[in-house]
Design a protein that fits this description.
214 residues; alpha+beta; 2 domains; five-stranded antiparallel beta sheet
Length: 214
């Protein structure tokens, strides 16, 4: 899935950082200020913004939209602000630490629902597919890079999605549980405010499990 050029990806990352910086200056700032500069990104797409400390890559915030509910430019701004200030696992990002944070964007594809325990294992491609597990009001999401980063097997990746949903690890096997796969186009800053590259999931250097959260 290559919907956007590298230049477009760089514009989106820059807009995400600008949204965070403007919110830090004044939490009452009007997000439309940034959204109005992204009107060409009018197609609805799902998107997630991840913030990581540099250089240890520990997650500092993560938020986004799994469904294409609004134009990409609008969703990007909302996701960036939510990742920096609305992720309940962390205190809000401060002025002093913004220079130590890199921004990652995942623009995600349409979800593909997969049924059956054996089929869910067979069809999962590590490094290519992200996973969503849904059951009732519970929902867990892991990005395509997560299993590669943590050296997970297919079963471990599905178990991790259940953990993110606060469900028992083995629930991905249950017929009543929805398991959906998606791919993403990923743009990542090399360093804080630095050069932005498009990352290929299955070429991400693997790290030991537990080295960083996602």
């Amino acid at each position: 899935m290559a919907k956007y050029s590298l230049d477009e990806g760089r514009r989106l990352v820059s807009a995400a950082r600008s949204s965070i910086e403007l919110f830090l200056k004044d939490p009452r700032f009007e997000p439309e200020m940034v959204k109005s500069t992204l009107k060409e990104f009018s197609k609805p797409d799902g998107i997630f913004v991840t913030l990581r400390h540099y250089p240890n890559e520990v997650v500092r915030g993560h938020a986004g939209f799994s469904e294409p509910i609004a134009p990409l430019g609008e969703s990007l701004v909302e996701a960036a602000i939510a990742a920096a200030f609305g992720d309940q696992r962390f205190v809000p990002v401060s002025h002093r630490e913004l220079d130590d944070i890199v921004i990652e964007l995942d623009i995600i594809s349409k979800m593909q629902k997969v049924n059956g325990e054996a089929n869910r294992l067979r069809r999962l491609s590590l490094g290519r597919d992200g996973i969503i597990v849904r059951h009732g009001t519970s929902k867990g999401i892991i990005m395509p890079e997560f299993p590669v980063r943590h050296k997970l097997s297919k079963q471990q990746a599905l178990e991790e999605a259940c953990i993110h949903a606060k469900l028992p690890e083995s629930y991905w096997k249950q017929p009543s549980v929805e398991v959906l796969y998606f791919t993403s186009q990923r743009f990542v800053e090399e360093t804080p405010s630095g050069r932005v590259n498009e990352m290929v999931m299955n070429k991400l250097p693997a790290r030991r499990r537990g080295a960083a959260n996602s």
